[in-house]
Amino acid sequence: MNYSLTKTDIKKEKEKGVLFTAWQRLVPLMAEERSAVTIAIIAILVSSGVTLVVPIIIAHIVDVYLVNKDFQGVLSFSKILFVVFLVGLVSNYLQVKTMGGVGRRLLFNLRNKIFNKLQELPVAFFNQNKAGDLISRINNDTEKLNQFFAQALMQFISNIILIVGTGIFLLVIDFQLGFIALVPAIFALIATQLLSPWVKRTSLKSLRTLGGMSGEIQESINNFKVIVAFNRLNYFRDKFKQANESNYAASVSAGIASNIFNPIYVLASSLAQLVVLAYGIYLISGGRFTVGLLIGFLLYVNSFYNPLRQLASVWPSLQLALAGLDRISEVLGLESDLAPKPDETDCPLVETDSVLEFKNVFFHYTEGNDVLRDINFKLEVGKTYALVGPTGGGKTTTASLMARLYDPSSGTVLLKGKDIRCWTPSERVKKIGFILQEPFLFTGTVRENILYGNEKYDQHSNEALKEVLEKAHLTKLLERFSEGLDTRITVGGDAISLGQKQLIAFIRASLRRPDILILDEATANIDTVTEQLLEEILNKLPRKTTKIIIAHRLNTIENADEIFFVNGGQVTHAGSMHQAMDMLLHGERQS
User: Fold this and answer.
1) Over 80: is that where the pLDDT of 187 sits?
2) Separation CA 479–CA 487 (nearest Å)
3) Range from 180-194, 249-263, 330-344 carrying the lowest mean pLDDT
4) Mean predicted confidence (pLDDT) in 235-257
5) Which whole number is the average pLDDT over 301-321?
6) How much is the average pLDDT of 514-542?
7) Per-residue pLDDT at 327
8) Triad 243, 245, 251: Cα angle to 5°
9) CA geometry: angle at 284 spanning 281 and 286, to 5°?
10) Is-contact 268 187, C-beta < 8 A?
11) Percentage of the residues of the chain whose pLDDT score is greater than 70
12) Would you say residue 503 has pLDDT above 80?
């Protein structure tokens, strides 16, 4: 299945309109915040009401009290204005505080959803996408949405209310003068509609290049030892420089796009005020207007175009939030093709004496390029099997299908007589242990790493856990760590050797006492003495445990009950060790 995250098309927005589409997509995110959003909207309505009533009061003061030099009346209405402004201040504070909380909770929930979704996706997804880009989606893209909801959304709604309200007031006071005042705004809105798709494209490109740059940083840091060893510092400097230059160019374009609306609305506002002032003076000279009414009218014009100018700055934030939502939705919209089968009727139990069986299994990573073709074999309970073959022959792929890191392209893998897809993940991992050649460790202690995903011993004290390890014959491995269970491990495990990492992975898998234990070059970085100790531990595993060993060193597999040769898309029964060596040498010569 293709899990590669691709560019998002915005044609649907052009069909329905940017604002309508934005509203449809953003409202569901606020479904759990209805009460808080309602409070914020009420506060906005009050604040907008204050803005709309102030020009009327000022016009009344000028025409009734200032003209007649009634300063007592001016003082009385000034007190009223103070109360009105105080109400506006409180309502503004309330909506800012409320929406700030909404934004932070939305950020928290979105990041949880993305992280949980990533945990549901199969290994194939992470093979096809850079970790740095995924981190950017969790951190940067969600932060864009947080900024929009916490800061811009209510400003956006408030501005629309003010634009509509002041537009109505302008037309009611004087329709002809009001219409003239609104004409520049019509042209500004048409320009907004035409430029919005371009603004969003540049914002999306900026976010994508930021993710690409994060990917380059992550790759360079993770592989720094190899980079130094091969003296490839200049190569990665150049790669990062290219990614940084690409992000710089995209960011500059996004910055230009984000600010392109402001001069348009400033020009529209200036033209409207100039026309209103000139025509208003003409009306006053004809006795159709009063000075106070013209002042109030100019205040309404200002109250109409100020929100438009603010929309010019808020609109790019909306486009950036939508671009971030596109990238987040790409991840949240993915479904794993490794989900368990929900219908029990598709999961018949086959009577069998084998613990694992491949039936007509085909597998490919990319369409039309089969790695395995028509594979059939059975593994019996308690036996030890070895997979040998040249590098790239398909050994690890075969083992990955056994552990259901991937599903066959066609055919069936049976675990204890039932399609492996019918077992839940928790059931499957209890039955199958997998020790990788390069195991991954987590920041924490040895105890936390060996108990990872093993809830059975979570509540055990260190003393009780040591007794369990003693019974499992794993204590001697624990002695290789200076502070035992409390030995600290950092991300990547740089404080310990690769061999010690493999020991932790070995303890982690063996402690589960699984039905099937897969060792993929699990002793490649371990000394001969420790390898002999591991072999003794393997021999003391429960008799029911079936062991599958992938190794290049023949001494590792010499005691295997059966050997399979894996190469050229086929898994062939090798017979004796001598036959396996002949097949291996012949296969390597062909490679």
Assistant:
1) yes
2) 11
3) 330-344
4) 82
5) 77
6) 80
7) 81
8) 100
9) 115
10) yes
11) 88
12) yes
Q: Give 338-348 pLDDT, tens digit per residue.
A: 766 656 567 77
In order, the DSSP letters of 24-90 are HHHGGGGGGGHHHHHHHHHHHHHHHHHHHHHHHHHHHIIIIIITTT-HHHHHHHHHHHHHHHHHHHH
Q: How far apart are CA 406 and CA 374, in angstroms?
A: 16
Q: Is-above-0.85 flag for pTM?
A: no
pLDDT score recorded for residue 584: 65
Residue pair 361/375 in contact (Cβ under 8 Å)? The answer is yes
Residues of the chain with CATH 3.40.50.300: 344-590
Where do you find CATH 1.20.1560.10 in the chain? 18-332
Average pLDDT, the chain: 80
Which one, of 139, 118, 316, 110, lies nearest residue 211 by Cα?
Answer: 139
Give the tens place of pLDDT for each residue, 18-64. Answer: 555 666 666 777 777 788 888 888 888 898 888 888 888 888 788 77
Q: Exposure string (b/e) for 23-60, b if CB count within 10 Å is 16 or more?
A: eeebeebeeebeebbebbbebbbbbbbbbbbbbbebbb
Strands 354-364 and 410-415: antiparallel
pLDDT at residue 432 greater than cutoff 60: yes
Rounded (5°) CA angle 579-585-587: 100
CA–CA separation, 135 vs 56, rounded Å? 52
Burial-class residue 576 by CB neighbours within 10 Å (0-12, 13-18, 19+): exposed
In terms of Cα–Cα distance, which of 85, 64, 80 is closest to 292? 64
CA distances 315 to 22, 43, 101, 195, Å, are 11, 22, 22, 11
**CA 258 centroid distance within chain:** 24
> 3-state class of 544 per DSSP?
coil
Cβ atoms 165, 284 nearer than 8 A = no
Q: Tell me what pLDDT residue 22 has.
A: 60
**What is the token pair recorded at 244?**
């940084």
**Per-residue confidence (pLDDT) for residue 11, from 0 to 100:** 42
Classified as helix, coil or strand, 494 is coil
DSSP state letter for 453: T
> Nearest to residue 5, comparing CAs of 130, 145, 138?
130
φ/ψ (deg, to 5) at 380 = -90, 160
**565-578 per-position pLDDT tens digit:** 888 888 888 876 67
* DSSP sequence for 388-446: E-STTSSHHHHHHHHTTSS--SEEEEEETTEEGGGS-HHHHHHHEEEE-SS----SEEH
What CATH number belongs to 344-590?
3.40.50.300
At residue 74, φ and ψ (nearest 5 deg) are -60, -40
Give the architecture-level CATH label for domain 18-332: Up-down Bundle (1.20)
Handedness of CA 186, 191, 197, 199 (dihedral sign): negative
